[in-house]
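Entry 14. Structure prediction run on the chain below.
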Amino acid sequence: MRSHAPFLVGRDSQLTLLERAMARAREGHGGVVFLIGEAGVGKSRLAAEAVGGALGSGMRVLRGRSSTTGPAVPFRPLTEALMSLFRGGEPLDDLALGPYRPVLGRLIPDWDTGERESSSMVILGEAVLRLLLAAGRGQGQLLLLEDLHDADPETLGVLEYLVDNLEYTPVLLLATVRTDFSDALDLAQSARRRGVATLTELPPLTRPQVDEMTAAHLGADGPKSVPAAVLDRLWEDSTGSPYLVEELLQSMIGAGTLVQGTDGWRAVGDLRRDVSSTLARGILRRIDRLGTQGLTLLSAAAVLGRRFPLTVLQRMTGVEDRALLSHLHAGVAARLVIPDEPAPDWYSFRHSPTVEALFTQMTPGQRADLARRGARAVEELHPGLEGDWCALAAGLRCEAGDRVEAGLLYADAGGRALAAGALGSAVTLLSRAEGLLADADDPQARASVLENLLPALAEAGDFTRAFDLAEDLHALGGTGLSAVRLVTLHARLAKVAHTAGRWSDGNRQIDRAREVLATAPDEATEAAVDVTAAYLALDTPGSDRTQHAEKLARSAADTAERHGLPVVACQARELLATVARERDPEESAAMLQQALATAERHRLPLQRMYAATRMGGNAWLAEGDTSGLLAAREEALRLGSVNIMHTVDGILILDAVLRGDHESAQSAADGCLAVVRRLRLAPAVRYVLMARAVLEAHRADRAAMETALAAFTEWDGAGSQEEPLSLGLARAFCALLEEDRDLARAELRSVQTLEAGNPSTYHLGGTHGLVLLLDVLAGDAGRARHEEITATAMARMRWNRQFVLLADAVLLGREGAGPRAAAAVESALAVAQPYPLARHLGLRLVADAGHRDGWGDPVGWLRRAEHYFHERDVAAVTGACRAGLRRLGAPVHQHRSGTSRIPEKLRAQGVTVREFDVFRLLAERLSNKDIADRLFISPRTAEKHIASLITKTGAANRADLCARSAAFRG
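Output returned:
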């Protein structure tokens, strides 16, 4: 009997689909195909046929398989597939990967820098995509991932990104998934609904196909050469499963009920037996033919899992090399096991029922003994339990009944997964450890697990479960747990609460930590508590929150210096820098430089990134410079820090709004919100919702602004650091764009009241800029108030400075210093250059004061503002500017198409579209008649336009006007 049919039976349409998909990939149009089917329906066989075709056409093939050994190992199929790129000796051009190369260290050990936090699957997915493109050889690539139903959550997270982005690449992703419910099947069905993947379900074989397959396996001339009773029994018992057809045939031949004679195949004896027992007996009968040692080897292999390493198998059984290989080759010949390519020295059972059949002939004690021997073998061969070995050893210890040892190993594996950013696997592994150690008499070990499980749950967004563990912390306090360990756990949970934006929960954990510290003081541990408490204090509503946070941070910094706690020192100085920013920018910069130096000296990449991010934030506030933030974001991308990336993204979204780039701000906000809401990163959600409210306010869309602010409130916006911005940048500006200056001032008074009760470290709410200008215009503030505001560091921040300068201009105008007032306006316009809405709104606000006090160019300012707001359909301000022009006796021009062609300076001088056409022709020094002929107007009309141009531009005469036109066109 053949081990395989010489050709595929009943899969012509599926094979044709795969061949077409591979042809398209070779042409640069990749895609995704999911092979869906029940176990044993032939998914792997069809995939193997596709691999043969791909290799035959010159495509590169990358293969990986999910594992059922122990808990899911993060990224196993991807790592296995990608590692084959580095085995052939061909150089790989990794320059195209740019900053994504370190991210791939999570999959490729040689590229692991160890300097990362948990990165999003989107980032890792993009990194994998770029690696696939960099590894292309112009002939296309087939990425085959088998048994995705057993895949870990991290692998599926990366694949979700890949399936959406392979269409215009030379890569075909082929994946096999069982029809049983799984996250992988859900991913495949979702991809099909989005139109980015093809699902090909392999149905059971039909009766004619089963007959044809049977004949092919037996080497018969056709179904007619096979006994009808055999064909009937195979059809009834296999239900069209190719795997069951093969196994039943093997069982029949092994049992002697199907024999081959000189006249062909014939049935002997009773074919009608229990199918499951027949299968098991048939499999065990084949194993028995391998001898006692063969049975021992395969039994030990089954305990290791469907995949098993030869080195471990040999160590746990003591079989020498020659005998080991001999039995394995016999197992391959018996179609029981196969080499697990491309992994060297690994084999796997062909089908899971083989493992189950082996288990039926083992007692629980025998299985536990083999598992214990397997665990010892793994630990002896791999003392450090690197990579997947730790999870394998943990699973074996668990099966052996060694609960404490298994729990400790799961804890170690979970800690490594957390450090590698594999959050789903970290939570799974650490949860197993916590469950195993919960009943053990080892509170220290369980506490060690919780120290990692708490931040893992927080990073994974499972805050509810993290807080449920708070009761366990209380119970651990009475089990002999050391005070330092218990305090550390409470501090970790407080940090989780801070990340989630849950101040009250965090403060409760700080209180519990301090209660324990009171009974067993420890200065170093208290410093870690103090620095976490400082961050919570800064976010907790209260009139003294900045002072309280600063006091705690200074205490933590001093203690950190004495006890050599570099992480605490960095965290404390970063917070102190934030608080110091409002009184002395130089002090803030010095604090951040100290934090940066400490991080570099102690090789703390994450703390270095945090310091760099705050430096970038300071530069943005001071001068509107985003380069530092962009550099920090690149560093966060390199390290995989999701929190910092989204924090920076929120600031960049607000910056885009203030710069008038509303479309990109809208798009970025939508994308960012989708992620941070899913991750439940409350501080990031609040900031982006605030920025979205500002966006709608700057569009003069009050209804949309109120919707965004309602969502902001739902995410605990009241009392937050962002609340003053929601009033000062959103509500106040919306009121000004509605020409309701009284409402705007009322909103700004609310900001002042709010900041008095809840001081904010976000200083763009208007209390040091816009409120001063509006109060000066209303006559409620004078020079003394102006000097009081300008003496603060916040007034020197670029956004605030434009309004402070305009307020100074209005005061100078009242004081009779007209030229200085006009110069102050020009200075304000230079500062406001990045912020078009604020710049033109400022001109509209000061124009009346300029006219009343006789200084500046109020007509020109109103014209510029009127044009800007007309273009953006802000009707109230446009109408107010036109009314102002009429009050000043200036003509109000109708807007015609082509206005945007007029330079801003000429437009501000009131030059119309037709006058600009005449102005451009004057560069050629044409006569009135020539100009009239060119523009199809009368010479008299041309003369009137030229006279109007001389008046509006202030030209000395026609010759001067011609020279100006020539200069413009030159």
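The longest helix spans residues 545-563.
Filed with the rest of this week's runs.
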